[in-house]
């Protein structure tokens, strides 16, 4: 196999980062700097003098290449491969295919490993990375390196692990013109114009980073799709990317525009029941698989926000999805059909739409269709209750769609550790199949006990920013997403720790501070943006900054007032029986907790209830006062985060230190802006004073309302 | 002074470029790798044990910082600064202000140095970098490092140099949304959204690179301007950039939208003779200078391609320019008023428009106005004759506008050394003030012998690409532009050599090959795109690829057929007396050479003449055959370029080698595409056969005409 030419050990070890370099964060968590702890490094070096790979698959070769690169860096001297199993050293292979691994695991152990699983075993003077399959060996190699990066002991190494979810995907909302919808880390890393002939080394590094956390699929185009991506020249470009990704176990997926048979095929219709339409998709699928044998499949946004779909022909989402699924099935491809739909009619409660539309279709989808559901029923708000579809479609495999880009969570600027949000959602008990049916159990299929398709998708936060994610801590969101996609029952803090240990120097102060930032920042963000269950009160279009006053938009459910319903009496969206009754979409046991404002957790109070400003909360505060304290707590927490980070000056490289510092300074300003603008706005209804001990808004409400940001990033391309 | 925190010697020397790094070209020509030639390195190290800076200006501090960085890298060990002039070592200061430099130069020598000039002097065991002023010291420091990077001997060092042109500017056609009009190296490096609080280290490295070649101004916004850049929050963002640039001697400029008093100021008019309009610009200038004391001034595109301007109010370009000039004058700012105008009426010959409009205004501009003229009369074509305005406005300082981005020259993909094109233009004799009045002499003012404003501007080829320019050799275009702006009479090959020596390993094969690529590639590009004086026959809008068939556009002078006028009889634009008589805009001595097809150099034949297909050329070939041979020669040359580059495999780092190789592979394909598409098209008129020994076009004309590229880069932002 031929790996892209980035890695040249002899060269990379000789080069020093020049004057223009310092540490720009490009290496992500795959840093492989020489281990500073000399006895530890020496013990590793003694144990791992060489590497033996048994097998020739592209994935095994990539795994070996990574091991040589990683070990040479971590140990501070070149580590080489050998042609036969060494008496002492590291042995890499695939169970059942590499004879060196025979008898390494018990039959029971071996059977316990899922596809993509691996074992790391120390036996005498030999260490084994044993993959259940080629991908498993690759994941094992990265896990082994992670083990060393974190300074873990090699004694009695006996570790088995495997993914609980089959498809672990990044969704790139990248447009073919290089812009990224809701992208806040620069522009698209895909240079479609120069593909297939120019292969940016970044494509390989992207694949390595993803492989290291178990991501095995990349949807490289925006869900607001263009048909042209199915034109042959674009398929050839996609095939070139697929070739770069393949050794790293990553399949490429494309977003399918439902009307492509019309726009590209020249057909008069895209009706899923039309024979010519079926044939067009079948032929297109064959063409794709001839170019990309391991093509993953299609992700589809249909009949939503202006995208075409089966509803235009009086067909259901199931008929639409099955059309594509039938075309892909002979080749092993799947369809990820998004449940994020809303019709042209304005609903009483948008939170109810997807459920109403999809639950009746349960059981009507082909086996190779998944319905991809956002974590909450609105749209990636700082905090949402879990989507009512989770647990409500037992006969349909549901994929989780999280966002990693932070559309409503401070975008590319704010440090907001999303792991806590993911965990909150995944750990939520839906009671769907009885108590203990967490969202995680639905996603990984264990709630149903069958061998269904499983998937978790994350809307990528990756762009041309040199450190990939703009805000350096955005790397942690990418990392944590991948680790939770591998194991949705995992704990966010474990992954924060891993990321931090691989990313920052091994100093207790640095480690504690970085991990704490990730742990506390999501709650802080919720507080300074949308505390107590508020949601969707941001600036219009670009979604940058506060905009609770937004009311004149083409659709009511694009405004803020639709969601907060503030008036002189009170604030909040009544989703109980006296209101939209969105709670009836959940199991009664789930709903029971939220039906009454007395038992409803404060975090979701205004999501489910419209309450008077002077409503008394368990804290003893009025609703208004609690709102004030919450907003202030959020902003104050960001001040603490900044202060804590500043205490690290000199404890890590200056470039990354300064980068985070500057972003936190902006976040502190913007947290106060959110706080002050929202409180000034809500005060215009409550008429109540901000508690005396709290800072008053710096400016008038008119000032905040008058701010405009025509060039805020991440908006849709219009060309 | 505080420098941005990128440079930390202790850190940068410890770090090695990690697995994801290799050599990505980010360091440009400021590489400072340890000198491989050990005796040479030791002799430098012995001579330069320390650095002493006498003076405290930001520019002097930046110069010292660069010297320490550069010397430490080149010599392979930390070099430190001392608090007093060392008996042995390097002394940095400003003439007349640093006592260490007293008596270093003769009075005559000192007087000969222009502003920004410097002397590098070796005297006994001391080496001096003596600036005429602070900028001069900075330029001297970079020149000294360049001297070492190129391995030049320190013996008898006595070198005086200074800029022949006062204002040496990059023009960024960067939009506030991050897109770049005609940008082919990714997107804008200016993150307006996060300014002024987030300062990307790249801003500093940009400034360093520019200072190293003498660039002293940066126009950071697109000539197709938005008024909002004058809103206070945007001015604060610009001020933050200006602060980063200041230590590197670079002033910031903004593009001024002529209608800003209406759009931003709420006035009913932007009439330059309106008192309120005058006051608005005066107030705006005062506001700008309060934030940016060394603000450079405005660049203006008015009454051209839809941009507003004075003509809407029945005023002249001079009245428009003087309006802004009067506002800037009290603060020392200048106006660069672009001559690239064309009216809404379609002209008989667009090549004549600017001359007709501007020559009558000669002498009517304020002293702080320059008219900025593109090198040729059409628009940055692969080859154009010099613009007739050069030499035609003796009472008005003219600025040269070159492009560095390669809009019509292969964009971000093709390797085309623009230096040869710059040189061809600058060395052209206009005969304006008698024989020997080269364009260079007009640009540097020497043709007029007065102390007028002088300027050269280059439309930047810089983007978010990690190597800044997409195609690695685009760095050479940036470099060569800067060096020629410093000295327009310089020779391109000298600067190719400098760049190559600083950029690539010191191997004769590598050096010869790289310099040769730069030397031959422009002629090759002209040949495979627009030989024999053809021009403006590219694809519409995006200007990517061939499009000689383009005929249906909103304006005739946006089509290709307007320019080549091919028919059954022949091809070419008659610009002699029998045609548009564009030649009468030049001096008669200049025109004489081009009037007759017999004396007209083949390079401009079809620029000035419409000739029959069977017209006999001095070569003995018919025009048609010559066209065929020229197109083939261009494509064949690219094949040779690729072959030569491939011979360097293993002689430089693999990442840069592969990057150039992949781009050359694309260039080879695209050169053939240009050749075949254009010959297929012109053959449909000539009806003559392609000479037997030449390859025939691979596809039919219809095939080439049918190709579409909706997402080719660099097109205008539409949002």
From TrEMBL, chains A, B:
GO terms for molecular function: alpha-glucuronidase activity; xylan alpha-1,2-glucuronosidase activity. Residues 28-143 form the Alpha glucuronidase N-terminal domain. GO terms for cellular component: extracellular region. Residues 148-468 form the Glycosyl hydrolase family 67 catalytic domain. The keyword Ligase does not apply. Pfam families: Glyco_hydro_67C, Glyco_hydro_67M, Glyco_hydro_67N. One of its GO terms (biological process) is xylan catabolic process. It is an enzyme of class 3 (hydrolase). The active site is at residues 305, 379, 407. Belongs to the glycosyl hydrolase 67 family. Homodimer. This is Xylan alpha-1,2-glucuronidase. It comes from Neolewinella agarilytica.
């Amino acid at each position: 196999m031929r790996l892209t030419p980035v890695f040249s050990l002899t060269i990379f070890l000789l080069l020093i980062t020049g004057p223009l370099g310092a540490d720009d964060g490009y290496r992500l968590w795959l840093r492989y700097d020489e281990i500073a702890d000399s006895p530890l490094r020496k013990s590793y070096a003694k144990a791992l003098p060489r590497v033996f790979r048994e097998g020739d698959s592209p994935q095994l070769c990539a795994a070996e290449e990574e091991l040589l690169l990683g070990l040479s860096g971590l140990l501070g001297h070149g580590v080489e491969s050998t042609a036969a199993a060494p008496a002492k050293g590291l042995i890499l292979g695939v169970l059942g295919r590499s004879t060196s691994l025979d008898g390494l695991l018990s039959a029971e152990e071996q059977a316990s490993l899922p596809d993509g699983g691996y074992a790391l075993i120390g036996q005498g003077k030999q260490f084994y990375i044993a993959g259940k399959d080629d991908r498993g060996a690759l994941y094992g190699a990265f896990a082994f390196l992670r083990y060393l990066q974190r300074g873990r002991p090699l004694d009695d190494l006996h570790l088995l692990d495997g993914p609980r979810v089959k498809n672990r995907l990044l969704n790139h909302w990248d447009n073919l013109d290089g812009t990224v919808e809701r992208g806040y880390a620069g522009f698209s890393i895909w240079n479609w114009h120069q593909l297939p002939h120019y292969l940016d080394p970044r494509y390989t590094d992207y694949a390595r980073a993803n492989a290291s956390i178990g991501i095995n699929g990349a949807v490289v185009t925006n869900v607001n799709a263009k048909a042209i991506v199915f034109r042959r020249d674009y398929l050839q470009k996609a095939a070139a990317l697929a070739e770069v990704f393949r050794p790293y176990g990553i399949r490429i997926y494309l977003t399918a525009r439902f009307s492509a048979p019309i726009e590209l095929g020249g057909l008069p219709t895209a009706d899923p029941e039309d024979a010519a339409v079926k044939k067009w998709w079948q032929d297109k699928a064959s063409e794709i698989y001839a170019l990309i044998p391991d093509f993953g499949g299609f992700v589809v946004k249909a009949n939503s926000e202006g995208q075409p779909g089966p509803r235009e022909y009086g067909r259901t989402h199931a008929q639409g999805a099955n059309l594509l699924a039938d075309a892909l099935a002979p080749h092993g491809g799947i369809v990820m059909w998004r449940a994020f739909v809303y019709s042209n009619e304005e609903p009483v409660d948008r939170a109810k739409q997807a459920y109403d539309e999809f639950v009746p279709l349960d059981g009507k989808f082909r086996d190779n269709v998944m319905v991809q559901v956002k974590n909450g029923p609105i749209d990636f708000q700082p905090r949402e209750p879990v989507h009512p579809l989770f647990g409500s479609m037992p006969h349909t495999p549901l994929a989780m769609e999280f966002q990693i880009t932070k559309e409503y969570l401070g975008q590319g600027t704010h440090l907001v550790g999303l792991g806590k949000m993911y965990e909150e959602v995944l750990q939520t008990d839906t009671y769907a199949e009885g108590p203990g049916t967490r969202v995680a159990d639905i996603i990984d299929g264990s709630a149903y006990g069958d061998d269904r398709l499983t998937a978790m998708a994350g809307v990528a936060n990756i762009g041309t920013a040199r450190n990939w994610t703009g805000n350096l801590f955005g790397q942690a969101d990418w990392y944590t997403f991948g680790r939770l996609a591998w194991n949705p029952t995992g704990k966010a803090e474990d992954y924060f720790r891993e990321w931090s240990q691989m990313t920052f120097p091994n100093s207790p102060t640095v480690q504690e501070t970085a991990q704490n930032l990730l742990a506390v920042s999501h709650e802080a963000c919720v507080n300074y943006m949308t505390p107590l269950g508020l949601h969707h009160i941001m600036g219009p279009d670009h979604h940058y900054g506060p905009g609770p006053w937004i009311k004149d938009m083409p659709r009511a459910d694009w405004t803020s007032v639709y969601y907060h319903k503030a008036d002189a009496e009170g604030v909040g969206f009544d989703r109980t029986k006296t209101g939209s009754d969105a709670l009836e979409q959940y199991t009664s046991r789930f709903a029971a907790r939220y039906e009454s404002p007395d038992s409803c957790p404060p975090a979701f109070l205004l999501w489910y209830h419209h309450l008077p400003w002077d409503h008394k909360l368990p804290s003893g505060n009025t609703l208004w006062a609690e709102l004030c304290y919450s907003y202030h707590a959020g902003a104050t927490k960001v001040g603490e985060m900044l202060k804590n980070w500043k205490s690290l000056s000199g404890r890590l490289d200056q470039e990354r230190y300064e980068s985070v510092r500057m972003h936190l300074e902006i976040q502190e300003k913007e947290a106060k802006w959110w706080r002050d603008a929202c409180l000034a706005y809500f005060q215009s209804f409550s008429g109540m004073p901000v508690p005396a001990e709290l800072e008053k808004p710096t400016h008038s409400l008119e000032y905040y309302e008058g701010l405009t940001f025509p060039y805020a990033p991440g908006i849709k391309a219009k060309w």
